[in-house]
Amino acid sequence: MTDLKNLIKNKKAKIAVIGLGYVGLPLAVGFAEKGFSVLGLDSDKGKVGKVNKGQSYIKDISSSDLEKVVKKRKLSATTDKKILNKVNVIIICVPTPLDKHQQPNISALENSAKTISKFIKKNQLIILESTTYPGTTREVVLPILEKSGLKIGQDFFLVFSPERIDPGNKKYTVKNIPKVIGGITPQGSELASLLYKSFINKTVIVSSPEIAEMTKLLENIFRVVNISMIDELALLCDKMKIDIWEVIKAAKTKPYGFMPFYPGPGIGGHCIKVDPFYLSWKAKEYGFYARFIELAGQINSQMPHYVVTKTIFALNKSKKAINGSKILIWGVSYKKDIGDTRESAAYPIIHDLLRKGGKIEYFDPFVKEFKISAKGGSASGGNKQTLKSIKYTPEILKNYDCVLILAAHSEFDYNEVAQKSAIVVDTRNAIKSRIYKNVFRL
Ligand SMILES: NC(=O)c1ccc[n+]([C@@H]2O[C@H](COP(=O)([O-])OP(=O)(O)OC[C@H]3O[C@@H](n4cnc5c(N)ncnc54)[C@H](O)[C@@H]3O)[C@@H](O)[C@H]2O)c1
Known about the structure:
This protein is α/β, with parallel strands linked by helices. The radius of gyration is 24 Å and the shape is elongated.
């Protein structure tokens, strides 16, 4: 342990990051900027090539920052798993999605553990950052690693430390979000804390990986439950002809005990949409039904349907049907100012509008192409339809029967959108003014 501690302290420890996505790439760049030698391992050759050319594909990392560390030879990427044998620290940042039956799919994580087990050497620190259900580090990853013959605590260290990054958030980045750390052994936590402190302001050591795993889920469940609660209230307020946005604005003047959440077309993204269901799945093992999570999921999954109904209602006011109407979808990413479309509500909404005969085009400055499957999800094969973002000028708005705002990217003049469009269905309260009679809100 002392050797590894010194290597970390002196920034001589070699670090491998498995999975160079939204989580892994900022982390790899962060360590490389601090002088560590970082090797990124990714199964996607395209990403590996881009990293080595200093071309960033993640909005939060600029290509110039990436290029700097690549040119200094502090960061390089590869698909060669053998590099795992040459490093002192391995950080796993691979995806943990749900399968088509909404059950956890931890195959990428298990495969990473199996690969590490093949190449593991004494005195390595292994950190899992991918979000997963409580117990994964101890029950799934540890036994795979110990198949190598090496022993935890004695030969290697294993830690769970959840990533809490909020893509697109300029105020809170990987550097100033405290890092929760739960090691199987206290030495592992200590080493991980020392490592992360090299570029993250604060670390919070907890007593076990299970606490760290559950902490991450609590944070995401808190959001999914509250967003779904406000979605439900938005549906009720609509019936009661009460402006939910004005209600939230007033409620948040309370200086304590209230935190604003906003309704929307349906939760998207990896964390809030997916992670809570890792826990409700695990809960069933204990004969326990996590009802808040399931209910939140049910309410939220109705939101895309409600948005389509609202669009029907809005068009109906001008005696138009969806069938044959030209509809411009404004923003297909799951939230504003990012290009991530994973689990975006735009998938089921566009799918449904197309099915009803709508002539759909979309505009998104961050998403050049949008592929939807025959079932309304993201298309990773099989039947799919590819849409390409239109080039936006305010003049084109008059060509559409309706503009449907799903992601209200910043730096656009939404008053102009209201003024130049026939009808706007605004699911994000992008148009703050209440003077426009052609704007329909959630
Ligand atoms: N995106 C977020 O905002 C966010 C925030 C907090 C936590 N997380 C969690 O972090 C984890 C990673 O998420 P992400 O958003 O970075 O995913 P991502 O899809 O952006 O990146 C994952 C990367 O891993 C690579 N990969 C997949 N399997 C691999 C394997 N077996 N070996 C090597 N590389 C492999 C993929 O090619 C991809 O580049 C997930 O568990 C997620 O829940 C994500």
